[in-house]
Structure formats: structure tokens, C-alpha cells
Amino acid sequence: MSTDVHDIVVTVNGRRYERRVGARLLLSDFIRHELLLAGTHVGCEHGVCGACTILFDGEPIRSCLMFAVQADGHEITTVESLADGEKLHPLQQAMHECHGLQCGYCTPGILMTMKAFLAEHPSPSEAEIREALSGNLCRCTGYQHIVDAMLLAAKRMARP
Amino acid sequence: MKPAPFKYLAARSFDDALAFKAQHGADARFLAGGQSLVPVLNFRLTQPAVLIDINDVAGASGVTLADNELRIGALTRYRTLQREALIVRHCPLIAEALPHIAHPQIRNRGTIGGNLCHADPASELPAIMLALGARLRLRSAGGERLLDARDFFTGALSTALHDDEMLAELIVPLAPPRTGTSFMEVARRRGDFAMMGVAAVVRLGEDGTCRDARLAFCGAGDRPVLAAKAAAGLIGGKIEHTDIETAARSAMQEVEPHGSVHASADYQRHLAGVLTRRALKMARGRAR
Hints:
The structure holds 2 protein chains of 2 kinds. By secondary structure, chain A is of the alpha+beta class.
């Protein structure tokens, strides 16, 4: 059968991209292989691990559970948007200081999940942070240092 | 871990979606939030020739209140329901269950209609629709029909939808005064599928006597299970200790769990009893 292709226009981290994509191309693969933004990681490819979490129109979603063609006309934010040149985002700085990562595979998904969460909950409790992290698997840290990092980041980001 | 090739059709209206479905029938699947469908596509457990994307169908999403009924568009996402004041105010049973459904990233995308059409017997919402006595509006190019939720689920991952039909809307009757509800489940981890869950609805008379009761279970068989005998036994009593014990023992017999690597069928029955006790006490307290 001939490949079903579609022309799409997406805005990723503020930059507009026009591409022709196959219907079955996952959004996660589009971001990594077509746009060469490899910061978004792919773990399980069935919506369990959370490594591929991005912001879709501002809300965290699993990019492995959408097709690139569905992103036509929409706005995507990936982990590459966080740092300002050499200056780390407060979330990244806190993860660094608190040892919130070891292998780092889950980190981009966690950062994008928590970026949206902290925007909505600027001073969360530890329990709320753990609940917010429940959709992101980390097999290295045992989560404690990630929770510490999020508490620190929330404190710093809440300051005027 | 990549889906097999398919043809992608984007529907902008119900008419588009239903015309596509009439044309392609069983070869086509509707793509709503995709949070259940895309994993099985990625695993190639299903390989439809056509996907009809209904995410941009106008008028398929949102909650309205009319004629003592809540009308919930099938494409309404869990996240929208969590933020929707009409749900929080008029249907606390749905609001109570939503945090148990997967994780924030899934709830941002998953839809209530997609959930019901996927008909996973461990899922919360099918049981809740039974407990609420909801009706489902099914549309096709040729017309529409209304179906009671209890007639919609025909088996594991199976529904009464015809090949040319789509679920368009859920209709939930508003609860009369002195109605109390409770949803509880036991899962191994937050967001996992429930090993057993219960949705309890009780309505009391002015003297505190139970006038109506419904107990619906998820994770309890190949489809959501209504424990009709357990509920009927509550009517006329005051939902006191012995009434609750009788209902719990009955519910343990009425559920039909299969058991899994995570929980034996016996343990699931035990959970049905425990949850019935807890949920009835909670619902009774809320009904007063």
C-alpha cells in the first residue's frame, strides 16, 4: 500500500516547522528524527514510562501516544526550551544540585511534567509533588532526590 | 513498537466522522485521545486500515446541564472534567474517580468516550456509568439511538456499538436530594489498573431509610458488574452494620473476578467485600 503522507505545520519551542510526515509517524519520533531534537527520550512507547513527556499546547502529554500528523497547527514545547543558553532553568539547576538524576534517561520527561505542574501549583506539598511525579518512572534514584529537587525549585521559582 | 501503516482521516464534524465510518466500517477505528488505542497500535495488537481522528470534531466536547441531566460530550478529556464546575457540583462520583485514572499526562489527553468505547473491565468509568444509571447516545450516518450504560458493555474490550456507529454523548441524570455517592479502589500503585473498585450510590428518605442503592464494580470480571442483590437488600433498611455486612457478603458473590498475577480471584472477592463496607459507610454519611 502506498504511504499515506500529510503536510503539517507545527511550532516547537517557538520555532515554526513545515514538514511532510507519514500518517503512522509517532510524535516522539517526529521530534527526535525529523526535527533532530533528541532531548525528548523514548522509553516504553506505550504510555507507561513518561520519558517522552512534552508540552502540547502547554499541557504535558506522552508524545509516544500521538501521531505527528495530529500536531498540525499546534504548539509543542520540549526540554530544549528550558535552559537559557548556558544558564540552566531553575528546575534543571535544582535537579543538578540535589542529585535528582543518575542515568538521566527519565529526566526530560520529569522536567516537562514538573514545569507544567509548578506553573499551576507554585507552592506544592511533598505529597502533591509525589502525586504529580506518579506518571514518570525513574529506575535509578528512588525518587527521593527528585522530590527534594522539586521542593527546592518550587521555593526558588516562587520568589519574586 | 511502531504502528502498522494506516490511512489517516481527520474529521471536523460529526457528519464527516460518521460518513467516514459508514464508508469504512469495521476497517476503521475512531482516534479520540488515543491513550488506550495508540498503545495497542504500537504493539500491533490491532491494525486498522483507517484511523478517523475525531479530536477536532466540533461540538463533541464539553459538559452542559439541561432538563435535570448532565450531558457530557464523548470527546471531553479527563482534565476538562476535573476542572469542570458542573461535574464537581452535580456529579461528585465522577470527580472522585478521576484522580484514580492513570496519570496527569494521560488525563490531559484521554477522553471519557474513548475510555467507555475501549471497555476495559478494570477501568473506573464504565462501572461509574452503571452506578449513575447513565445513557449513551450512539450516532450513525443513518440516525441515532440511546442505550442504557448497562447494555453497552458486552464483554472485555467489547461494546454494543455497530460498525457504523460512534459514541457521541453521555447523559447522566442528576441525583435527587439525600443521595450520597462514593468511589474507592485498590490498586498496587497510584494510577495502575484497579484490582477491585466500587462505585456506590445510595438515596435516603427523610427518615434515613434507604430508598435506592446501586453498587457497581470495576476489575470484577469481563465487564463492569452491578451487584444487584447486594443493592436491593439495602432498600428499606437504614444502612446499619448488619445491612452493610449482608451487602458486602452478597457483593463478594456477585463479582466475577478472574484473578491475575497481581491478585488471586479470592483476594479480589475479599477486596469487593472490604470496599463495599467502606464505600457504603461513606455514601451513607454523604447522603445525610
